Amino acid sequence: MKFSASRRDLVLASLFTALPFDLSGAAASPINPTETIIKLPAELQWKANPANPPRSVESCVLTGDPTAPGLYYTLVRWWPGYMSAPHTYTTDRFCMVLSGIWWCNSGADFDPAACVPAPAGSHVRRVAGTPHYDGVIRSHNEPAIIAICGVGPVNYKLSDPSKPGWREV
């Protein structure tokens, strides 16, 4: 069976999709803030790590706790000119780049020039127990915001604990 739509059919179909489903005139129920929790961007609580330079990296825990057992979901904002030092986690992390370009690499040898750009929309999986590092190179104008999900505790461990957990690049 072959289906052929006329221009009139397409116009009518688009008009019908714009109509509300409930034609009875009944009002929709209001949102229940205990069931659907919305935080607007201005309500997110970004926190800097006091051990890091100002405007280098900030985090915003949305749910859970990366240092405690269980599921967590957090945002990380890397500012241009800073990267993490090589480190590992004991659990996988699943990352989505929401904005900017996140520069990533694997290995315990810190080499920012070898990093791979992950632009907004990219998915990055950090495999448990593997050393890696990331951040935003200095030549970029905007920070990268990354959404990270995983199961805690992550047990963050620096590859070289004699050096700080961040690097200026």
Which descriptors would you attach to this protein?
5-stranded antiparallel sheet; 169 residues; Jelly Rolls; mainly beta; 6-stranded antiparallel sheet
Write the layout of secondary structure elements.
Layout: H1 7-18, E1 47-48, E2 57-63, E3 70-78, E4 82-84, E5 87-88, E6 93-99, E7 101-106, E8 116-119, E9 123-126, E10 132-136, E11 144-152, E12 157-158, E13 166-168
Antiparallel strand pairs: 1-2, 2-3, 3-11, 4-10, 4-13, 5-12, 6-9, 6-11, 7-8, 7-10
Walk me through what this model shows.
With 169 residues, the chain is mainly beta. The protein has a single domain, classed as Jelly Rolls. The protein is built from 1 helix and 13 strands; from the N terminus they run H-E-E-E-E-E-E-E-E-E-E-E-E-E. Strands 1-2-3-11-6-9 form a 6-stranded antiparallel β-sheet, with no helix packed on it. A hairpin with a 6-residue loop joins strand 2 and strand 3.
What CATH architecture would you give? Sandwich
Mean pLDDT comes to 90
Instruction: Identify the strand order in the major beta sheet.
Output: 1-2-3-11-6-9
Q: Which shape, going by the Cα principal axes?
A: globular
CATH class division: Mainly Beta
Number of domains: 1
Q: What is the gyration radius calculated from CA atoms? A: 22 Å
What is the number of beta strands?
13
Order of helices and strands: HEEEEEEEEEEEEE
